[in-house]
Amino acid sequence: MNGNDAYIRIEKVSKHFGDVAAVDNVEFNISGGEFFSLLGASGCGKTTLLRMLAGFETPTMGEIYIDGAAITGVPPHQRPTNMVFQNYAIFPHLDVRRNTAYGLRTEKLDKAESNRRVDEALEMVKLQGFGDRKSTELSGGQRQRVALARALIRRPKVLLLDEPLGALDKKLREEMQLELRALQQSLGITFIFVTHDQEEAMTLSDRVAVMSGGKVLQIAAPKEIYNRPVSVEVADFIGQMNFVDASVTDLADGQALIDTAGLGQIKARATEFAHKGANIVVAVRPEKLTLSKDRPAGEGNAVQGVISTAAYLGDRSHFYVTVAGTDKPIAVAAQESDMSDGQSLGADSAVWLSWSDEAVVLLNRA
Amino acid sequence: MGLSDSTAIAGTVPESRRSLAARLRVIFMRSESLRGYALLSPTLIVMLLGMCLPFALMVAMSFWTQRGFDIDISFSLTNYGSAISSPIYEALLMRSLAISGTCAIVTVLLSYPMAYYVAFHVHRRKMLWIILMTLPFWTSYLLRIFAWKIVLGWNGVINSGLKSLGIIDQPLEFLLYSPTAVVITLVHAWAAFAILPIYVSLEKIDRSLLEAAADLGDGPVQRFLRVTLPLSLPGVIAAMLLIFVPTVGDYVTPALVGGPDGIMIANMIQAQFGKVNNWPMGATLAIVMMIVLTIIAVVYIWLTRKLAEWIS
Description:
The complex is a heterodimer. Helices cover about 20% and strands about 35% of the residues of chain A. Chain A contains eight helices and 20 strands. Chain A has helices spanning about 45-55, 95-100, 110-125, 140-150, 170-185, 200-205, 220-225, 230-235; strands at about 10-15, 20-30, 35-40, 60-65, 70, 80-85, 160, 190-195, 205-210, 215-220, 240-250, 255-260, 265-270, 280-285, 290, 300-310, 315-320, 330-335, 350-355, 360-365. In chain A, the strands form four sheets. Chain A has a six-stranded mixed beta sheet with strand order 6-7-8-3-9-10, sandwiched between helices. Chain A has a five-stranded antiparallel beta sheet with strand order 13-12-11-14-20, with no helix packed on it. In chain A, a hairpin with a 2-residue loop joins strand 11 and strand 12 (about 255-260). Chain A starts with 7 loop residues before the first strand and ends with a strand. Chain B has helices at about 5-10, 20-30, 30-60, 80-85, 85-120, 125-135, 140-150, 155-165, 180-205, 205-215, 220-250, 250-260, 265-275, 280-310; strands at about 65, 70. Chain B folds into two domains: about 5-60, no CATH class; about 85-310, MetI-like fold. In chain B, helix 3 packs across helix 14, helix 5 (about 85-120) packs antiparallel against helix 11 (about 220-250) and helix 9 (about 180-205) crosses helix 12 (about 250-260). Chain B is mainly α. Residues about 1-10 of chain B have low confidence and may be disordered. Chain B is globular and about 90 Å long. Chain B contains 14 helices and two strands. The interface between A and B is medium-sized, with 28 and 20 residues.
C-alpha cells in the first residue's frame, strides 16, 4: 500500500446540472490503497462524484487531485483511473479475450506479452478458459468479472466501481463482495466503490462516505458510522434505528441526564450539542435492546411494554414493542442464541426492554 | 385411454356428435400455424396474384422466342445464349452494377455523418431532424430528377455559376447526360434509405460503451474506429444493399439524365418490352439481372458476415 493518506484530494467540488446541485461543495481525501465507499440513496450525487473522478463529468467548481496532480482538464482516456460500469458496458462485438485486452492498445505490447497480461487478468477474476466466449453468451456474474478484468489489465492506480454488484442475485453478490475485497487487498490499489446497499458498503470498505442531497454527511470506518452516526439521517440510512425524542435535564462529568418520551430517565455520554435544556433525539439500535419477561435485576435502564408484532427470521427474531409515551413501536432484534426464554414471547406478551448506557446515541434534532 | 379417463370426460360432448363447423373451429383454434396463415391470407393472396404469377409468367416467357410479330412458345435457350454472348448486354449490365455500386458507396459515405450527427449530437426533437432529412422524398421522383437537370444542365445552376465566377469558360459537359449525373441523382434520391438504417444502428449503441472505451485509453478517433463503426456496421451493410439492389434496375433516372453513356440495363429491358418489341428477350434480360443481383447480394452478405466474425 502506498500509505499516502491524501492520495486523492477532492477540494470543494460541486457539480450543477441546470439549477440542481448534484454534488454540493464536497471535500475529503482518500488514501492510497484504501477501499473507500460512496454510500447513499439514488440521486444523492455518489455516481456523479465517481464520474467526475473518471472524467465523464467536469466539476462546476472545485478541483480533484490524484497523486498530487489536478485532473479537471485531463480527458478520461488519459487518467490513471479505470472504471467498472454499472451495466458493465461489455463490448458486444468482441469476445471475452478482446474485451479484456481492449485497454492494452495504448501500451504497445508485443503479442506474447499482451497474451500473458490477458491470461493474468482473466485468472485474477477466475475466468480462465473463458477467453473465446462471446460476450453475448455470458451470465451477469461473468460479465461483471470481464468488466473487472478489463479495468484491472491497465493496472490503474485507482479503480472506480459504479454499483458493480447491483445486478447480481444475493448469493452471487455476497460471493463477489468477498472476492472484491480479497482482490483489492492483494493488488493494494485504491478502490472507490459506489453503492446504495449499506450492508455492502459496511462489509467491503475501510471507510464509508454517506451522501445525501449532494452533500457528504459522514465519513468514517463502518463500525464508527454504525455505532456513532453523526445525524438522524445517517443513523436512519445505515441499518435500523429506534429514535425517541428527548431533552437534556442535567449534565455531570461527561454524562448527560436525559428525559425521554417513553424510555424514562436515562444517562448517556454527553456530546457538544447536548447542553442543558436542549431538545435532542435518542437513538438505540434494535440489537442493543434486550427483551425479558421479568424486570432485569440491578439499576440498569429498563422500561415495560407490550409486543405488537413478532417475526421469526431463523438466526434472529424481530419484535416491535409498544411502549407508552413513544410515537412508534420500538424495534428489537434478538439473536436466536440469546432467546433462552424467547419461545414464549409472541404478540401481546408483556415484556421488559433493557439496555446499557453505551447503547444510546445522542443526536441533534433535525 | 383408460376406463377412468373416459368416465372423467363423460360429461363433455363426444367428438363424433359435434357439428362439422364446431369441429373445424376446434381444429382452427388448436393450430397455431393455421391461425397464422389466416391472418396473413390477404397478403398471401396479393403476393400470389400480383407477384408469383407474373414472375412465373416472366420465367416462362424468357424461354420463348419472338418471331416477327408472333411469339413462339416452344422451349428455347436462344435468348439466354444471346444475353450471355452479346457484348452490349454484358456492357450494360456491368455499367449498371458499377453505377449502382458507386451510388451505394457514395450514399452511405454521405449519409453516415448525417445519421451520426442526429444520433449523437441532437438531443431534442430527433424525430423532426429525421423527418427533415427525408423531406426530398415528399416531392415527386420525376420532379427531383428535373430539378437535377436544372442544376447540372448546360446552362444549369452549376455551369452558369462557375462561368459567372470566371472559373470556367465553357460549360462542364460531364455534368449532365453522363454516368456522373446518374450517380448524383440516384444518391440524392436514395439518401433517406441510407440515413434511416444507419441512424437506427447508431442510436442503438449503448453510450456507456463509448465511455468504457474512453476509460480504457481510447481517444475520439480510436473510439469511433473500435466501437462506433463496428457496432453500426449492420446499418451500413443494410443501407448498401437497400440502395444497390433497386438502383441496378432503375431506368427513369438514366433515361432522363444519363445520356448515351449513362444508359443502364433496365433501359434495355424497357426497350425490349417497348419499341424493340421482343418481350421474351426483355424477360430473359430481367431474369439474368435478377440472378446476377442475387449472386452479388449473397456473396456480399456472406463476406460481411465473415468480416464481422473476423473482427470479433
